[in-house]
Amino acid sequence: MTSKSTFSASDKKQIEEHGLTIAAIENQLADFRRGFQPAAINAAATTSNGIVSFIQRQQQSLVNLFDESASDYLIARFIPASGAATRMFRDLFSAVEAIKNGWDIPAPAEKFLKNLKQFAFYDELKAAIKKNSHDLDKLLAKADWLPVLEAVLNKKGLNFASKPKAFIPFHRYKEFTRTALEEQIYEGLTHAVGNNNTLNIHFTISPEHEKEFKALTKEILAELKQKCDITVKVTHSFQLKSTDTIAVDMDNNPVRDRNGKLVFRPGGHGALLQNLNDIKTEMVFLKNIDNIVPDWHRDDTIWFKKVLGGYLMQLVNDIHAYLIMLDDGNVEDEDLNGMISYAKEKLFIEIPEWLEESDSLEKIDFLFGVFNRPVRVCGMVKNEGEPGGGPFFVEDKNGNVSLQIVESSQIDTSDVAQKKILHSSTHFNPVDIVCWKNDFNGQAFDLNDFCDPETGFIAKKSFEGKDIKAMELPGLWNGAMADWITMFVEVPLSTFNPVKEINDLLRKMHQ
Hints:
The chain is of the alpha/beta class. The chain has a domain at about 85-160. It is about 35% helix and about 20% strand. Helix 10 (about 210-225) links the parallel strand 6 (about 200-205) and strand 7. Helix 4 packs across helix 5 (about 105-115) and helix 4 packs across helix 8. The radius of gyration is 25 Å and the shape is globular. The chain starts with 8 loop residues before the first helix and ends in a 21-residue tail after the last strand.
């Protein structure tokens, strides 16, 4: 058993400088020793049970509700954007190594080089290469790939290897290009303008990118001031160091670097729960930085953002009306039964059998607890390929079943029954979520109260050539929102266009 005496005075100082406590580290070490139980999935959510699919007439009604009501609310967009784009350029790194060793370059890198003119950053790259006394067209004509790749990746060129995706030019317009960051702001103008004709958009970034982030946003805001009368407020925050987790070796002992210092690792996107908690608007649209298209491909995205937002407004109106009645305490049996039916049939909430025999006060108490929670509506896209993480009915340790977004890594696929349920899933999670963060009195919930800390994840990583274990906090849209009222809505594949690899920018929706 690891005890507090394991840590030296300098360890304690390092832990405290990280915004952590010895007790928190002890809890993390206990989690490593104990491990996390896999998610117990009972069934995949489908359009027959658990996922709502709206016909055109219903969609129009929700879009109308959203358009009519948006100006009554404070609305924000929340965009996690702190990661470097390393994975995006993985094939190009492999190509550099291949060229230096006289090997054939990987096919994806060859595709990138042969289609270079189709990328939004082509002219920028051409100028960067010219500064290095090269001519891009000549290099491409004679298949001299190395200087081209190095100019894309390294500091002497575009330095994309060290930049976050937010700063990479994604799309080319007639007279300009737009980065992912710019596109997110422009998309926000189409649906997330709320009270006081204001768009609030919040990015989580890394501290080392703050200077460039501020410069880029200043430029965008100056441009928008000339173009439109909407007030645009761009804010940012960092993933808190206090959400980092300690790394351990394969025997669950703290890992130390060459200087004897403890090693900490970022806690994954679940760490951003604190950042989301700090957003001071009732409604928040949440999506990833790289799932963005140019203006001319945006119609479906805008439409379904409004469908999701309108449905959230409809649900919140119903739920808050019930909560006002329940808070008053004088509720007729007929109304209580109507609320029970609503929770069961509309919200897919499991109602315990004992409630039927309960008196009115017990029913009021139960229903108040059921309804008085943050609400989220999550878009779900039909699987085109192999089923993976997505929407499931999940049973918790107390036997309660609820709708959850589950990653495939949370599921024990060695269990035949669990694997069968996983493979029966019909939809996946594109991270297209709209959240309601306030209670029926207009007070913000503390989102930490609705997280399931037992849904973290332990992964095998490597550090200085050795195998280590790293712990991720409950994922932001997974266990971090485990106790939210959760609704799933079918959205089309056209709304999901992520850029995970550089060649994804060659796809039709990005051209």
